[in-house]
Amino acid sequence: MKQENINSEPIPSVLKHIMKKYPTISKVEASKRALAMEIRYAEANKERDHKRNIEYQKQWDRALQKENDHWALEVLSGDALGEYFNVIKD
C-alpha cells in the first residue's frame, strides 16, 4: 500500500538483483544503487500508487461500515436500530 518514507535498507530482492548484475561492486555501493532504483521506481509509479491508495481506502471504508452495521444488528434493537439505519427519522 502506501510506502512514501525512504528506507535506509533496500528491498532484498532489488539488492540481490544489483549484486548479480554488478558482481564486482561492494555491498555498500550496491545498496546505494538499489535505493536509487527504488526511488526512481516509486517516482515513476506515483500516479498509479495514488489511484491504488484511493481504491484501497474505499475498500477499507466499505469493510469498516459493514462491520459497524453487523455490530448494530447484534447490539442495538428497536428505535436505536431504526435510527442507526435511518429508517426512523427524528
The percent range for helix content is over 70%
Structural class by helix and strand composition: mainly alpha
As for the number of domains, it is 2
Query: How big is the Rg?
Result: 24 Å
Q: In whole angstroms, how far apart are the ends?
A: 41 Å
Helix-strand pattern: HHHH
In quaternary terms, these chains amount to: single chain
Total of DSSP H or I helical runs spanning 4+ residues: 4
Identify the overall geometry. rod-shaped
Number of strand segments: 0
Explain the overall architecture.
The chain folds into two domains: 7-44, no CATH class; 47-90. The protein contains four helices and no strands. The two termini are 41 Å apart. The model has no long low-confidence stretch (mean pLDDT 89). It has helices at residues 12-21, 27-44, 46-75, 78-84. It is mostly helical and 90 residues long.
What secondary-structure arrangement, pairings included, does this model have?
Layout: H1 12-21, H2 27-44, H3 46-75, H4 78-84
Helix pairs in contact: 1-2
Brief digest:
With 90 residues, this protein is mainly α. It has 4 helices and no strands. It has helices at 12-21, 27-44, 46-75, 78-84.
Give the key terms.
mainly alpha, 90 residues, 4 helices
